Amino acid sequence: MTFLEKSAWVMIAALIVSGAVYANAVLAMSSAMGAIAPPNVGLIIGVTIVIIVIAIFGHTVAALMNTSDAEAPEDERDRIVAWRAGNMSNYILSLSVMLGLSLYALTGVGNLLFHVLVGGLVIAQIIEYALTIVFYRRGV
Length: 140
Hints:
Number of strands: 0
Radius of gyration: 17 Å
Distance between the termini: 14 Å
Order of helices and strands: HHHHH
Oligomer: single chain
Structural class: mainly alpha
């Protein structure tokens, strides 16, 4: 398994954990308010810190397992895998933007738009990393 594939696994874990924390917090706040919770800067900062901590720890462990692979320059295959995975995950991000805007047009609730876009961004990134793993495994 290459370092870039290990990196993708680390980032999937970081995004799933932070996404679950964010979704749980928003659902709890919304339930307590009886309406969709507004964006919370403290929550966003906290979730970002969770991503950073998991990413630093995971990448450090992955790099220590095979230092020569971690220091290797990106080759043509790596660029193709990154391009294909990013290109395909952009469709998910675009879909979430269209969904968020449609919900906003129908309901007029800006808070819902914000949370749908954040969720779409997290899901698109998870899919990008998952596709990266698939493409490395398939030998693309």
